[in-house]
Amino acid sequence: MEQRLKAEAARLGFAACRIAPADAAPQAGARLRQWLDAGHHGDMLWMADRAEQRGSPRGLWPDVRSVIMLGMSYAPGRDPLALAQVPDRARFSVYAQGKDYHDVVKKALKAIARWLVEQQPGALKVFVDTAPVMEKPLAQGAGLGWQGKHSNLVSRDHGSWLFLGAIYTELALEPDAPERDHCGSCSACMAACPTDAFPAPYVVDARRCISYLTIEHKGPIPEALRAGIGNRVYGCDDCLAVCPWNKFADAAAANRAFLGRAELAAPEIGDLLALDDAAFREIFSGSPIKRIGRNRLVRNAAIAAGNSGDRGLLGPLRPLVTDEDPVVAEAAAWAIGRLSD
């Protein structure tokens, strides 16, 4: 059964499939509690609200016996850091430049779930980043990879570029061996962070993380962190991109659904500043970027404009000072001040 399951997962576009028992990550709940107690989750209050369910698979579903962890590659075909020295162009995180991974991965998970029920009937549940599931500790417990010092999963075969999906099942499947930590003395990911978001190895303070600030955080971005954001307008890949294990990642193994759209490869910051809600919805339809809405993206673009040194962006910034969203208006005023100095 297990080998046929893995073959079916490969057929459906998953680069890796491993199995863990439901108790494969016994320390995950305690580590989560420590992280929450330190306030590292910022205003992601849902992390604390469902901490007991998130802490272990049986906290969410008492009948689960096995966890099938799957990874779908989105390894980039070009250097994710290539635009770092092109300040008038906006940088989108690699994972967001193609189709929305929630839709792609969940569709494939459901197909595997149907196949599994046909082979051996039993209750199951599928999850893709929208439920209180500790995907990364479970993935390590299943042997898919290990949590690196940047807290993300690292695979010996696929580097840092895997979307994770989980299937909880009441079947007692044969588990795979867990993966051990292969980071050693390397701390390249921590050193690469522009906003110093790692207070310790394996710990990320979301309140200083560019991905959190540009995606999850709804209010004004703290001024002390704005310069570090540079030209990033949605997420940040720096800690992932510098991982030495990425030398084993093969872009040819990536699911084609995640190939970057040409218009998101190197868009001009000025074009993003000019977006109204209708244009935003049209451009980012089917993209994970759509969930942050026009206002947050334009806020981020204003911060990037202020960091660009390009006085040509003063034109598209000025109308935003009277934007209906006060957060956008404040970011635009800050950017104008930066470019006018």
Automatic annotation (TrEMBL):
Catalyzed reaction equations: epoxyqueuosine(34) in tRNA + AH2 = queuosine(34) in tRNA + A + H2O
Main location per the UniProt record: cytoplasm
Domain 4Fe-4S ferredoxin-type, first and last residues per copy: 173-203
EC numbers: 1.17.99.6
Record text on cofactor binding: Binds 2 [4Fe-4S] clusters per monomer.
Positions bound to tRNA: 218
InterPro entries in alphabetical order: 4Fe4S_Fe-S-bd, 4Fe4S_Fe_S_CS, ARM-like, ARM-type_fold, QueG, QueG_DUF1730
Binding site for cob(II)alamin: 54, 129, 153, 164, 211, 236-237
Swiss-Prot/TrEMBL cofactor(s): [4Fe-4S] cluster; cob(II)alamin
Pathway terms, separated by semicolons: tRNA modification; tRNA-queuosine biosynthesis
Positions with a binding annotation for [4Fe-4S] cluster 1: 183, 186, 189, 243
Sequence positions that bind [4Fe-4S] cluster 2: 193, 209, 236, 239
Record keywords, A-Z: 4Fe-4S, Cobalamin, Cobalt, Cytoplasm, Iron, Iron-sulfur, Metal-binding, Oxidoreductase, Queuosine biosynthesis, tRNA processing
Active-site residues annotated for this sequence: 129 (proton donor)
HAMAP family, per the entry: QueG (MF_00916)
Assigned protein family: Belongs to the QueG family.
Annotated function: Catalyzes the conversion of epoxyqueuosine (oQ) to queuosine (Q), which is a hypermodified base found in the wobble positions of tRNA(Asp), tRNA(Asn), tRNA(His) and tRNA(Tyr).
Entries under PANTHER family matching the protein: EPOXYQUEUOSINE REDUCTASE (PTHR30002:SF4)
Assembly and oligomerization: Monomer.
Name of the protein described by the UniProt record: Epoxyqueuosine reductase
Species: Sphingobium cyanobacteriorum
Source lineage: Bacteria, Pseudomonadati, Pseudomonadota, Alphaproteobacteria, Sphingomonadales
